[in-house]
Amino acid sequence: MTGATAARGGGAEPAGGPTGEKDHGIHLLQQMLRIRRFEERCAELYSHSLIRGFLHLDIGEEACAVGVIDTLSPDDAVVATYREHGHALARGISMRAAMAELEGKVEGCSRGRGGSMHLFDAATRFYGGNAIVGGGLPIAVGLALADHLQGRRVVTACFFGDGAVAEGEFHESMNLAALWHLPVLFCCENNLYAMGTALDRSESETDLSLKAASYRVPSWEVDGMDVLAVEDAARSAVETVRAGGGPHFLELRTYRFRAHSMYDPDRYRDKAEIEQWKQRDPIPLLAERLTASGVLTDGDLERIEGEVGAEVDDAVAFAEAGTYEATEDLERFVTSEPVRAGEAS
Amino acid sequence: MTTDDPIHTLSEAVNQAMDIAMAEDPDVFALGEDIEDPIGGVMKGTKGLSTKYGRERVRNTPISEQAIVGAAIGASLVGMRPIAEVMLMDFFAVAMDQVANHAAKLRYMSGGRTNVPITIRTSVGGGRQFGAQHSQSLEAWMMHIPGLKVAVPSTPHDAKGLLYSCIFDDDPCIFMETMSLLFTRGPVPPGRFGIPLGVADVKRAGDDVTVVTWGWQVPEALAAAETLADEGISVEVVDLRTLVPLDRDAILRSVAKTTRAVVVHAATQFAGPGAEIASLVGHELFGRLSAPVERLGAAYSPVPYAAELESLHYPERKRIAATIRAMA
Ligand SMILES: Cc1ncc(C[n+]2csc(CCOP(=O)(O)OP(=O)(O)O)c2C)c(N)n1
Ligand SMILES: [Mg+2]
Known about the structure:
The complex is a heterodimer.
Chain A: H1 22-47, H2 62-69, E1 77-79, H3 85-91, H4 95-102, H5 136-149, E2 156-161, H6 168-179, E3 184-190, E4 193-194, E5 197-198, H7 208-214, E6 219-223, H8 227-242, E7 248-253, H9 271-278, H10 282-292, H11 298-321
Parallel strand pairs in A: 1-2, 2-3, 3-7, 6-7
Antiparallel strand pairs in A: 4-5
Chain B: E1 7-9, H1 10-24, E2 28-32, H2 49-53, E3 58-60, H3 65-77, E4 81-88, H4 92-103, H5 106-109, E5 119-124, H6 139-143, E6 149-151, H7 156-168, E7 173-178, E8 185-187, E9 201-204, E10 209-213, H8 217-230, E11 235-239, E12 242-244, H9 248-258, E13 261-268, H10 273-284, E14 294-298, H11 307-313, H12 317-327
Parallel strand pairs in B: 2-3, 2-4, 4-5, 5-7, 6-7, 10-11, 10-13, 13-14
Antiparallel strand pairs in B: 1-8, 6-12, 9-11
Helix pairs in contact in B: 1-7, 3-4, 8-12, 9-10
The complex binds thiamine diphosphate (TPP) and magnesium ion.
C-alpha cells in the first residue's frame, strides 16, 4: 500500500479474522448489531414522530463504520456525514446520548440542537456528522494538520459517500492532505448511489481509487460488506498513516438496504439489485463465519441480541425521560460569550 | 385570475412554468441534482419534464453545485436560458463563487456587453426540524450582491408567474421555493403568464397596520390579520414577491395609509432585509408614522433541531399578532 499507484483488491481474510480471537469476532458482531437494532428502532420512532427532520439509516453498511473505527485508538479522530449514527456508536458515543439527540433532548450529545445529522462529541474525538456533502473532508485535513503541528501521532478517519467525490471539496482536500503529507485516512463508503443518482451517472471515472491515486494517495478497494476485510485493510492503512506514511484512501464497497432517507420512496433502484445485496448482509455474513469456525453458538447470538435489545430499550427510555432545552437558551452557544450581536435582547 | 382557475400546489405551478418555458423556447434547459425522472427533483419541481423533453434538456448532475451554477452561467453567455437547481438554499454556500463573483458581475464588468439570463431555483427549509444546515433563509445574502434578482413566491399563482418571468429575464434570478408552502394549494391560471419582477401584491387590504412580508411568512401574516380582525384591528398584508427589484412604492403607499409597519421574514432579523425596509419607511415617511417600524425575523442563531427551540426561532402568527396588537 505504498507509492502512487493504487494497491488493488485488499481481499477478505479467512474466517476468524485478523486476530482470530473469539472475543474479537463476537465484539465486531455485537457492534454491528448495536447499530442495526438502534437504527431499526429509529425508523419506528420516526413513524411515531418522536424523531423528525431528516433521518438517514446506515442499515447494510455497518461493516464500514465498525471495521474502520475498531482499528482506531482513543486519541484518533473521526469525521462523518449525515449517515453517521453507526460511526458515532462505534466510536463510543453512548446509545443514550445518541438517541436523546435524535429526539431533540438536552441530554443528547449535541443538546438536541443538532439532531440526527449532527451528532458530535469532542470527548471521543468525534467531530461531527455533517449535512453538507463533502463538507467534512477539509475539516478532517485541518484536524490532521493540527495533530501534525502539535506533534501527536494520531490519525483522522474521514468518512464520506461516493457522491462526495463530485464536490470540489473532495479534490481540494485530497490534494492538500497529500501535499502536506498529513495523517488522514479517507474512507469512501461507496454504496453506488448518491440519493437517486447511480455512480456511473455521476462520475466519468467510476473507479474511485484512481482518483486517490491521481493525488498520489495510496488506495485500497475493500469489500465493505465484510467487516473482517474492512478491519484488515483499515488496520494496515491506519498503521501506515500513523507511522508517517501520509494520507491513505479506502474505497469501501457497500450498499444501503433502506432508502436514502425517510423522505425517499426509493424508486430508482432495482428490487432485484437490493435483494442481491441483502444476500451479503454484513451481519449474517460474519455470524455464519463465526458459527462455522465454532466461535459463535446459537446461545451466544441470543445473548448478544438480548444485550443489544436491552441497550436500545434503555436508550429509548432515557431519551423519552429527557427534557427539552429551555427556550430562553435559544441564542446561547452562538458565540463563545452570549454576545449581543444584534438586537437579540 | 378567476375563481374557476384549476387548483394546484406551488410545486405543480413551478413545474408548469418550466414546462411552458421549455415548450416555447428550445434555449431553455434545466440542470441539477436528481432532477430527472423518476425522482423529478427532490421537491418534485421538474417531475415529468425529463420524460417529456429528454435528458439532454433536463440534465441530472453530480453533486457539484459550483459547476451547476457555473455551467448555467457559461451557457447563458451565448444566449441560452438555463434553469439551475440548487437542491436546498443552504447549498448556495458551496456555489457562492459562481453566484456572487460571476453571475452577479459579468454584465457590469463587461460594460454591459453580456447578460447572464440564468435562473437558480432552490428550496428553502425551515419549520420542519431539518437542522442548522438544511433550514436557512438566505435572501439577505442574495440581496446584498448587486446584480442578482430575488423572487420569493408565497402562492402557487405567484410561483408560476414569477418563475416564468425569471426564466425570460435577462439577469440572474434566484427563485426561492419555500418548502413549507410547496404543497399548499391555490388557483393557478392555465397557460402562459408572467408576473413582472418588482411588483408587490396586497394580499389583504386593511387600514391600521401594514405587514410587509414574503414567502413563508405571508400565510402567517394573513392568519394573524384574521385573528386581529375579530379584535377590531385592520391589517394590510403586502407580499413583496420579489426583494430585488424591491417595490418601494407599494410599501410606501401602504404605510402612508396605515402609518404603522411591521416587516416579517424568516431570514435572520439582525442585518436582515427588514432593516433595509424599515430604513426606507423611516426615511421616506418620517414624521408621518404613528409608531416606530417593527421587525420580526429569525433569532440570532443557527436553526436548532429541537422542535420547541425551532418554533421560537422563526416568527409565526401568534408573535406577529402580538407585535401588531402592541403597536395598533
Ligand atoms: C452540498 C450538498 N449538496 C447536496 C446535498 C443533498 N444531498 C444529501 S445526501 C446526498 C447524496 C449523497 O450521496 P453519497 O455521498 O453517495 O452518500 P450516501 O447518502 O450514499 O451515503 C445529497 C445530494 C447536500 N446535503 N449537500
Ligand atoms: Mg452513496
